[in-house]
Amino acid sequence: MAVTLTPAGSTARRPRPARDRHHRGVSRWVVLALVTLGALVMLVPFAFMLLNAFKSPGDYSTGGPLSWPSEFYTKGLRTYWSEVDFPLKLWNSTLIAGSVAVLGVVVSLLNAYALGIGRVRGRLWIVGLFLLANMLPQEALIYPLYDAAKQVGLYNTRLAVIIIFTVIQSAFGTYLLASVLSTFPRSLLEAAALDGASRWTVLWRVVFPNLRPTLAVLLIFFFIWTWNEFLIPLVMLIDNSTQTIPVALASLQGDRLMDAPTTNAGSLISLVPAILFFLIFQRTLARGITAGAEK
Amino acid sequence: MALPETVAGPRRPATPPETAVTRRPRRRGGRAGYWLYLLPGAVLFVLVIGAPLMGTVYFSLTKWSGVGDPTFIGLDNYRHLLEDEVFWTSFRNTLAMIVAMVVVPTLVGLVLAAVLFDVVGRRFRPRTAAALRAAFYLPQVLPVVVAGIVWGWILRPDGAFNGLLDAVGLGALRHDWLGDPKTALPSVMAVMIWVQIGYPVVVFMAALQRVDPELYEAAEVDGAGWFHRFRAITLAQIRPETFVVALTCTIAALKVFGPVFALTRGGPENATNVPSYFAYYTFFKKLQVGYGSAISTVLTLIIIVVAVVFIWMQNRSERQDRGV
């Protein structure tokens, strides 16, 4: 990937007189200021949220949303934390997203092995089917899934959500990995076959190690996508003991009008894990998105 | 997210690998053995996607409250749909979502990515460009419902946006942004632009790294200005990524649910209703499973048509490129 090319390019070009003129120009500072302003505007909602998450309701009604909190008020955070039993919600979200990430990658790999390496008959149609499945609106699946889950006793279980998202995510994973594996070096496979390796061995000893970076990106994507999902968890998980973080916040918001500081405190707590993932995986994510779009 | 062409592209000349297969010693099981690897995925796929999709199409031909047995009524639900004001409103609002989630983010994203890559990345430090990119991308990784709830509060009558208007002396513009049918849709659109803008920026910035810098240098030597180079080189070079972004964002706009749920629940007076929320509401609040299924089926068909048209256009433009 060409990610590292930029710094080298810019230093190499610096001596040129034409570049130098631009380098000293005022316009680049104007551009930088404008873009920075845009980036700050993007962050303003977070500033609003932080400012009001630590405010008491009384403080909010007298001082309004933009005032500096008169005291460092953490009761809103603590109330939300205990009222929705946040540690349990965190566990539910982690369990669901983590299981889906792992299972989704495994299913994608198995599918893609048959399609990309095995080149089974009709593979183009099969891959097309997976691609299409990835685009379907979840509303087109939700009622039969809801109905079936009720009948087999999986309604309001995390397992139901795990199974559903494993399949939905692996539809994308299969599509992506099948196209990656279709360019897998044949010589490696043939060498392994000459050594008498079975298909199963080839998959785990030859294909898997070579694919590990792509699989890691896929794992992170599946985790974050599942973590952020809403409709299916909203429909399937109705209980305090099974709900995920976004569903818990949304149903509290729906139950009664939350006061502004509690809304902000709840949102802040709910956003922290996602922001942490973002900071940890920023590089991988940026690279992964391009892996998806690259030819 | 990925180019549809990648699957078909590199594999189309299927003959050379075929001959390689015949030469390989491991011929016994042939290719049939690979089907086993597809089995778990195929079973899951049928159970979770294939059968439910068929189920929805079948329910769309029935009248059913979710309890007891569905009554077959043929195409009545679809006839009803064509006369339903809310249905048409929801699809009109989808067009607004396409503007907010596809048109604006793609256009602004192109300029932002070019500026970040070309001006900030080259004439300042690349790290500055990366930090700014992260700020634009952040909303993309958050649970969109949580972001929607924060925005819902910001746009409330006593929320931060009105507070901001007061603070800058524009208090006369105070408004119930999401509560007024006239301003609700533009407000939701603004939030969606905020949510969506980072995706094209990141994809386009990555795409620009692929472009040969010598093209720009040659153009600069010829005296082409920044905008000219942007149009002639940048846009032409990253057209594949533009297609992908436009396709994935259009599909996302057609499916949008979470933000509408969090911000307005489709209201006021359906001013912000969208097909997926309309379907959800019909399924689970009005308990009209047949009618909800008809809405979902129509939405599914539209998405399939849009995807097929996009992929066809992309293939055609690639063929033209090769022809030239």
TrEMBL record, chain A:
GO terms for biological process: transmembrane transport. Gene3D superfamilies: MetI-like. Keywords: Cell membrane, Membrane, Transmembrane, Transmembrane helix, Transport. It is a multi-pass membrane protein. GO terms for cellular component: plasma membrane. The chain crosses the membrane at residues 29-51, 90-112, 124-146, 158-181, 202-227, 265-281. It comes from the Bacteria. Belongs to the binding-protein-dependent transport system permease family. This is Carbohydrate ABC transporter permease.
